[in-house]
């Protein structure tokens, strides 16, 4: 069975080729096989148009084989008084299972067949199906033009921005001087910068003796190191000024990202020492976040919005509140032009490597998202890593354009080509261990840098045409240090350059005369309400463009509704005549409960079996129908709920990484974000419960009164809502999607057990009854059953009033319907609140 299920879900994954679709189809598979597996509905209760489903369910075979194995055994061989057949056989028949011993072999054979079948189908899917979402990265109009020109052999005019058409760059086959020159022209020949719509205050940043350390990692401590802290930055000083583009370089692991995180205030752990000033005033994180931007190494964007919407959202929440919307629009357009995103304005962002923008376009979007905040200081971590020469040139041009507007830009960069390297003004070179070894200007063709290093004894001079950035990293490598015995950080500390830098830092760290410290009247640029609106707006765009989530959910809902409707066709109608009456009568003659009470079963299972058998065969007309109707409620509450909670989790966990970035940029506080995420679900859930409610209500044939229909919808709606928010909450409480899906599944099983359907409250052992009261599904089921049957005064065939039965057996009182309603409304509110709080309190992003 285990292998067959693995095979089945493997096959489903191969068929669906999309995480959300696969998980939907998967739960769909579980649903069909469970419902028709012969346990929830016995074989004779399965409608004739569904019986094929019974025969194809692997669960049928597994259950029958394992039951035959048990119940045809010796211990079940007793023949009870008043009966002719052994007890085991009776049990099997009563559950609609086949009592013949051959089923042991049939079951085993069928399961083996399923294992083979599913795995073969899976292989077939892998072999023949193409990737689902094979959208090409969006191509801008310009690229398209170039591509066409390449095909027709046309020569394109240089565009108005004075840039060399990109095809000359790409057509240079070897990356020698030729390309370098043309690229260089690309990077540097820009039009004189235009004034931007929005003014900004040019700010410089200085830092002195920055030390950053973390608690000693376990792995190192295991090697016998005694110190409790590991120092990653060892007293670094420097300054970045407006209009100057600084390259932060060093071998990987030197501590570049660490330095940037410390300066930008993005560290969530560790110990920071040292002074940082912003234009002479000590840095305060709240104000600093408002005037700075940080383009992280990993581009993180919401996948289901367009480029323009991403920018509009960022601008809305980060520009001062007094900027009106038309100015904001103009500013966004300006920024898009600056980083050359204008042709991609309406392109969907997508997921990297799957759909939407290409890597390089993502990078430019990352830059643009920070730029629309109109920051004075911008940090960029490896903006060109992973890009080819052409894409890197485009990104570099965007960065250069930015610096030329008078902003302060610092950029870490990895293996730059000569032209990219030389488009920087200054270099901040670090070595492994977190020490600086060169802080100063590059000079024309890097002459200053070359002069500095060639002057040091033991350093071999640079060859003609060699990339100075490569050379500089080579001669300062740890290996070279060991060979030549030069300690570059000490050389730097005793150099003229170092003294010059010290003076510069002193100068810049006293506030200019007549200046005032940065201050803002409010913590965030927009009010709480605007933040809520903005978040809701973005989420609504995101949801609208996410059919794999929303449309699949509706599709699933419709199919489940039809499924339940046809499976439980008409069970809600009054006066259903019971066909199995005769057979049941026969079995009831056997005193099941007393027999079963002698069995060594755990109390819960025991009670469960007793109560179910008693009810199933007690032959009170229509009581079983009540159970069937309740079974349909129970199944839909659980399946639809779990599906909702399961499918919302990947969506929320992707958005949460975006949330971390946006919160770090001080765009909003966690609560408006959570509110937006929660609020956008509400209308979608409403439509979902409407689809489901109308279909199922009509097909099952519940009583057509406005009040009962309303209650049905009401409970379904809030049931779906709290499941969905429960899923969100679990994402909020756990570090990643995998953990959250495992953790939430663990709870479903317990909820299921104490829902009041498998074991009614009155029969749950006292010491477990408290769980019934905190079990959300129990409340929904209570509401659904009570509103439907709690006030029915008609009688079963045995003369018991339906309402009395509901009250005695399940403990549902119609008078308390309103109280139940209040609890069911409170549940989603509670989960949503916990979701918001978990976002506020926990930060699973370690930096
Ligand atoms: N939280 C941490 N705990 C332990 N070591 C860390 C931590 N963060 C970074 N490091 C180490 O510090 C060094 C510098 O990292 P980083 O700043 O990311 O380098 P890079 O210059 O490549 O950006 C690396 O050797 C890394 O392993
Ligand atoms: Mg790094």
From TrEMBL:
PROSITE patterns linked to this entry: ABC_TRANSPORTER_2
Biased composition annotated in UniProt, kind: Polar residues: 165-175
Keyword Coiled coil: no
Cross-referenced Gene3D superfamilies: P-loop containing nucleotide triphosphate hydrolases
Localization per Swiss-Prot or TrEMBL: Membrane
Residue ranges, annotated region (Disordered): 164-188
Cellular component annotations (GO), alphabetically ordered: membrane
Origin species: Panicum virgatum
Principal localisation: membrane
Topology term for the membrane: Multi-pass membrane protein
Protein name in the entry: ABC transporter domain-containing protein
GO molecular function ontology, one term from the record: ATP hydrolysis activity
Cited function: May be a general defense protein.
Similarity field: Belongs to the ABC transporter superfamily. ABCG family. PDR (TC 3.A.1.205) subfamily.
TM stretches of this protein: 20-42, 103-129, 554-572, 626-643, 682-702, 709-731, 737-758, 770-789, 816-837
Pfam (any one): ABC2_membrane
Keywords from the named record: ATP-binding, Membrane, Nucleotide-binding, Repeat, Transmembrane, Transmembrane helix, Transport
């Amino acid at each position: 069975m285990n292998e067959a299920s693995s095979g089945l879900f493997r096959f489903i994954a191969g068929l669906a080729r999309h995480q959300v679709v696969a998980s939907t189809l998967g739960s769909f598979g579980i649903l069909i096989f469970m419902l028709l597996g012969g346990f929830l509905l016995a074989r004779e209760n399965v409608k004739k148009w569904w019986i094929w489903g019974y025969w194809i369910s692997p669960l049928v075979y597994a259950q029958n084989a394992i039951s035959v194995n048990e119940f045809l055994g010796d211990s079940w061989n007793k023949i009870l008084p008043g009966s002719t057949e052994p007890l085991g056989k009776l049990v099997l028949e009563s559950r609609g299972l086949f009592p013949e011993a051959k089923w042991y072999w049939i079951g085993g054979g069928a399961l083996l067949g399923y294992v083979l079948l599913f795995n073969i189908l899976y292989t077939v899917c892998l072999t023949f199906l193409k990737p689902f979402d094979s959208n090409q990265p969006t191509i801008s109009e310009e690229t398209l033009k170039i591509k066409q020109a390449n095909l027709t052999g046309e020569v394109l005019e240089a565009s108005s921005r004075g840039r060399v058409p990109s095809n000359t760059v790409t057509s240079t086959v070897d990356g020698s001087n030729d390309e370098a020159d043309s690229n260089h022209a690309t990077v540097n020949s820009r039009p004189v910068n235009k004034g931007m719509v929005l003014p900004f205050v040019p700010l410089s940043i200085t830092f002195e003796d920055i030390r950053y350390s973390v608690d000693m990692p376990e792995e190192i401590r295991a090697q016998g190191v005694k110190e409790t802290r590991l120092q990653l930055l060892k007293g670094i000083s420097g300054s970045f000024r407006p209009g100057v583009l600084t390259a932060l370089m060093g071998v990987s692991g030197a501590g570049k990202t660490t330095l940037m995180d410390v300066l930008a205030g993005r560290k969530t752990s560790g110990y920071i020492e040292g002074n940082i000033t912003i234009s002479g005033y000590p840095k305060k994180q709240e104000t600093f976040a408002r005037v700075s931007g940080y383009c992280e190494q990993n581009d993180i964007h919401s996948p289901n919005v367009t480029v323009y919407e991403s920018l509009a959202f960022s601008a809305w929440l980060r520009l001062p509140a007094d900027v009106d919307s038309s100015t904001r629009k103009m500013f966004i357009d300006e920024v898009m032009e600056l980083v050359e995103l204008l042709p991609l304005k309406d392109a969907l962002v997508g997921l990297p490597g799957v759909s939407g923008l290409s890597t390089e376009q993502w990078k430019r979007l990352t830059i643009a998202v920070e730029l629309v905040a109109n920051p004075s200081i911008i940090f960029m971590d490896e903006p060109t890593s992973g890009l080819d020469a052409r894409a890197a040139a485009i990104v570099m041009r965007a960065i250069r354009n930015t610096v030329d507007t008078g902003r302060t830009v610092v950029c870490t960069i990895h293996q730059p080509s000569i032209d990219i390297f030389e488009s920087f003004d200054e270099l901040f070179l670090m070595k492994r261990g977190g020490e600086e070894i060169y802080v100063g200007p590059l000079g024309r063709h890097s002459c200053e840098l070359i002069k500095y290093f060639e002057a040091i004894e033991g350093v071999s001079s640079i060859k003609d045409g060699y990339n100075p950035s490569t050379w500089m990293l080579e001669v300062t490598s740890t290996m070279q240090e060991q060979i030549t015995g030069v300690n570059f950080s000490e050389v730097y500390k005793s150099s003229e350059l170092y003294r010059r830098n010290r003076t510069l830092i002193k100068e810049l760290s006293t506030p200019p005369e007549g200046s005032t410290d940065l201050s803002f009247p409010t913590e965030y640029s927009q009010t709480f309400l605007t933040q809520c609106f903005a978040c809701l707006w973005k989420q609504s765009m995101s949801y609208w463009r996410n059919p794999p989530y929303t449309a699949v959910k509706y599709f699933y809902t419709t199919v489940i509704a039809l499924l339940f409707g046809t499976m439980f066709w008409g069970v809600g109608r009054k006066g259903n005549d019971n066909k199995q009456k005769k057979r049941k009568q026969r079995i009831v003659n056997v005193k099941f409960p007393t027999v079963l009470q002698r069995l060594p079963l755990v109390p819960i299972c025991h009670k469960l079996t007793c109560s179910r058998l008693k009810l199933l065969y007690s032959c009170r007309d229509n009581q079983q129908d009540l159970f069937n109707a309740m079974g349909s409620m129970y199944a839909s509450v659980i399946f639809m709920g779990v599906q909702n909670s399961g499918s919302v989790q990947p969506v929320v966990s992707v958005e949460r990484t975006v949330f971390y970035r946006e919160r770090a940029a001080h765009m909003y506080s966690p609560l408006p974000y959570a509110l937006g995420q929660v609020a956008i679900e509400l209308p979608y859930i409403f439509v979902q419960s409407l689809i489901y409610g109308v279909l199922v209500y009509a097909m099952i044939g519940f009583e057509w009164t406005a009040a009962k229909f309303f209650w049905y919808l009401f409970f379904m709606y809030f049931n779906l809502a709290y499941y969905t928010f429960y899923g969100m909450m679990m994402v909020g409480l756990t570090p990643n999607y995998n953990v959250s899906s495992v953790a939430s599944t663990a709870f479903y099983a317990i909820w299921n057990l104490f829902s009041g359907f498998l074991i009614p409250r009155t029969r749950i052992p006292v010491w477990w009854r408290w769980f019934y009261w905190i079990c959300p599904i129990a409340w929904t089921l209570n509401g659904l059953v009570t509103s439907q049957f709690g006030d029915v005064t008609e009688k079963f065939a045995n003369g018991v009033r339906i309402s009395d039965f509901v009250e005695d057996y399940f403990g549902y009182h119609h008078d308390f319907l309103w109280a139940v309603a209040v609890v069911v409304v409170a549940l989603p509110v509670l989960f949503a609140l916990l979701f918001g709080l978990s976002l506020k309190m926990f930060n699973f992003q370690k930096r």
